[in-house]
């Protein structure tokens, strides 16, 4: 019997409340050695919805699981039809103030690295380097049979050619790049095989129910060991793939700070959770530290942070 992956959790009543004071985040960054762990919430201001926040996609959409994708040709057809349409919108998303602030912190030597649970590539588009993509990236495709890797844009062109006139209107786009389509809209969408061996193609992302590659997990664990503190941005930490690094940092006695409007599964391990929007909050923190974002000159170092 296949088990469905954990998609939600119920906050405990004794979880510490969030604050609207981002000064602890500024203090941690000012000290340096900060490792960033980001989730879907950092990309909502770029037009990509998150899973669990207000209006999150889990209220209308259950993500594809690895087990369903590999076992059911109909599930693969449905996934690729929805993902092909979603890619057109997803690929047009641009970094927002939160992504740009993270890149600015890195340029000024305040970060030891960035781990992202997102598959949208927006951290890199904003200028962040050496980003560990915990769950992979939608801009790559891999064959499950021979392991051949290819750019998503190549597959997109092949799918366009195989499905001329495929122009349904989606009800929405999800954090995994999947568009909301009915079975009628999917119709007889044609899936194309690997050009090397004819095998099954899959986006180079970790689906729900699929394990993160062990080498990538160890890379992230090493980053946690090397960091002075962990800053979580826009993640509910519902799934263990991200929560384990919060637990590791807390067990090592390293401060964990979270910026997320809603409670998270990691709150009990955190020094503080700042319950404010990410873009404005990180921009305010950057100004407080005298770091320019978006090419703007930094504010004076005594710029007030409280009440932002």
Q: Secondary-structure blueprint of this entry?
A:
Blueprint: H1 23-31, E1 34-38, H2 66-71, H3 73-90, H4 97-107, E2 111-116, H5 122-125, E3 131-133, E4 136-143, E5 149-151, H6 152-162, H7 183-186, E6 201-205, H8 214-226, E7 229-233, H9 240-251, E8 256-259, E9 272-274, H10 278-288
Parallel strand pairs: 1-2, 1-7, 2-3, 7-8, 8-9
Antiparallel strand pairs: 4-5, 4-6
Helix pairs in contact: 4-10, 8-9
Short description:
This protein has about 300 residues and is of the alpha/beta class.
Structural write-up:
With 308 residues, the chain is of the alpha/beta class. It has helices spanning 23-31, 66-71, 73-90, 97-107, 122-125, 152-162, 183-186, 214-226, 240-251, 278-288; strands at residues 34-38, 111-116, 131-133, 136-143, 149-151, 201-205, 229-233, 256-259, 272-274. The strands form two sheets. It has a six-stranded parallel beta sheet with strand order 3-2-1-7-8-9, sandwiched between helices. Strand 2 (111-116), helix 5 and strand 3 (131-133) form a beta-alpha-beta unit. Helix 4 runs parallel beside helix 10 (278-288). It is elongated, with a radius of gyration of 20 Å. 45% of the residues are buried.
């Amino acid at each position: 019997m296949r088990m469905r992956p954990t998609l939600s959790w119920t906050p405990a009543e004794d979880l510490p409340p969030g604050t609207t004071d981002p000064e602890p985040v500024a203090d941690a960054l000012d000290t340096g050695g900060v490792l960033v762990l980001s989730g879907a919430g950092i990309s909502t201001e770029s037009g990509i919805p998150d899973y669990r926040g207000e209006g999150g996609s889990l209220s209308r959409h259950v993500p594809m699981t690895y087990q369903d994708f590999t076992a059911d040709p109909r599930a693969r057809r449905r996934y690729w039809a929805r993902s092909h349409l979603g890619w057109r919108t997803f690929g047009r998303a641009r970094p927002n103030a939160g992504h740009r602030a993270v890149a600015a912190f890195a340029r000024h030597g305040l970060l030891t690295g960035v781990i992202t649970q997102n598959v949208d590539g927006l951290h890199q588009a904003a200028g962040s380097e050496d980003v560990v993509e915990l769950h992979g990236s939608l801009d790559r495709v891999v064959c499950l049979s021979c392991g051949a890797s290819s750019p998503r844009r190549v597959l997109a062109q092949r799918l366009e050619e195989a499905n001329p006139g495929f122009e349904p209107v989606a009800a929405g786009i999800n954090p995994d790049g999947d568009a909301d389509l009915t079975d009628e809209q999917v119709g007889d969408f044609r899936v194309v095989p690997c050009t090397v061996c004819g095998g099954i193609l899959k986006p180079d992302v970790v689906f729900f129910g699929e394990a993160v590659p062990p080498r990538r997990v160890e890379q992230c664990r090493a980053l946690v060991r090397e960091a002075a503190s962990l800053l979580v941005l826009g993640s509910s930490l519902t799934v263990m793939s991200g929560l384990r690094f919060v637990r590791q940092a807390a067990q090592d006695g390293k401060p964990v700070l979270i910026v997320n409007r809603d409670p998270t599964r990691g709150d009990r391990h955190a020094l503080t959770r700042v319950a404010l929007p990410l873009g404005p909050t990180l921009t305010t923190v950057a100004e407080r530290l005298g770091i320019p974002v978006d090419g703007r000159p930094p504010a004076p170092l005594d710029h007030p942070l409280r009440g932002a």
